[in-house]
Specification:
With 154 residues, the chain is of the alpha/beta class. It has helices spanning 29-41, 52-62, 78-87, 105-114, 126-136, and strands at 8-9, 15-16, 21-25, 45-49, 66-70, 96-100, 118-121.
Length: 154
């Protein structure tokens, strides 16, 4: 289970923040692997789901900081999964980025109406995606990023 927002203590007794978690929801193994690799190389912890129902289950269990949601999924489509995730009070404000091969305005409007915060099309521009995710959350893979400075208000 994720420790979303909870400080952890390492072996040396130094307080560390958990890594920012990205849930990658994608039914194609190769695309999911590339998204996962891109996010991990950017300093994020990644959890995965291959269909809409898994996305809902993993989101509830892991409490990710951001979700990359493919729209065309088996079992349950990404729009339905997004609506169910939004019904969970603990997940209501988690940023969800729709990822779709369909670039039509109609599909974009449908995804945003379901509760997605952004919409990107395939083929994925990984630099654009990383910038977009960075606008929502910051990777927390080092202790230094979380230590207050003498000028901070913490």
């Amino acid at each position: 289970m994720s420790t979303h927002g909870v400080k952890q203590e390492d072996k040396a007794g130094i307080k560390q923040s958990p890594m920012t978690t990205v849930l990658v929801v994608e039914d194609f193994d190769e695309t999911r692997f590339m998204l996962k690799l891109s996010m991990e190389l950017s300093g994020y912890r990644v959890v995965e789901a291959a269909n809409g129902q898994q996305a809902v289950d993993v989101a509830r269990r892991e409490r990710p900081d951001v979700i990359l949601m493919d729209i065309g999924l088996p079992v349950m489509d990404g729009c339905r999964a997004t609506r169910l995730i939004r019904e969970d009070k603990a997940l209501r404000n988690v940023p969800i980025v729709a990822v779709s091969a369909n670039a039509t305005a109609e599909h974009r409007v449908k995804a945003l109406a379901a509760g997605c915060d952004e919409y990107v099309t395939k083929p994925i521009d990984f630099d654009q995606l990383k910038t977009m995710i960075g606008d929502f959350v910051r990777p927390t893979d080092s202790v230094e990023q979380e230590l207050p400075t003498k000028h901070s208000k913490k």
